[in-house]
Design a protein that fits this description.
It contains 5 helices and no strands. It is mainly alpha-helical and about 150 residues long. Helix 1 runs parallel beside helix 5, helix 2 crosses helix 4 and helix 2 packs across helix 5. The radius of gyration is 28 Å and the shape is elongated.
């Protein structure tokens, strides 16, 4: 695999496209991340580089149009990929915690051994009122829903 293909794969894995994000948006996000990284570098390091990051350069790498990739570009892309992986990991952990809380809240409403719903349930959400029906409270309703 050439350096250009490796760099392209690295940037596309870090900023994937999908239904909610097109290639141009992903390229823009990659460019912003690379510029943030570049601004944090010491001035001496920046003087030793041949060029700074531009959106045109990121686009050329994205589409494998770059003829050559410098070592510092691979280093920057790797650093940005690591940072994006950290962010994604934080998002996944937060989502996992939300899903665990959701499941814990809804496990209270499981069906009990007698076939009746226990705890918080969803019964009666389709009709207004506290009983879920317009029938009299003292009326026999055991045959309903069969």
């Amino acid at each position: 695999m050439s350096d250009a293909h490796y760099a392209s794969e690295l940037i596309q894995d870090s900023f994937p496209t999908g239904a909610g994000r097109k290639a141009q948006a992903a390229i823009g996000e990659a460019f912003e991340a690379l510029k943030r990284l570049e601004r944090a570098l010491p001035a001496e390091v920046l003087r030793n580089r041949q060029r700074s990051w531009t959106e045109r350069r990121v686009k050329a790498i994205w589409f494998c149009e770059a003829r050559r990739i410098d070592h510092y570009e691979i280093q920057d892309l790797t650093a940005v990929a690591v940072e994006e992986a950290r962010i994604e990991r934080q998002r996944l952990k937060a989502r996992e915690l939300r899903l665990e809380a959701f499941l814990a809240a809804h496990q209270e409403g499981e069906i009990g051994p007698d076939g009746e719903q226990e705890g918080r349930g969803t019964g009666g959400l389709d009709l207004p009122g506290n009983g879920g029906t317009f029938a009299a409270e003292d009326e026999d309703q055991t045959h309903w829903g069969m």
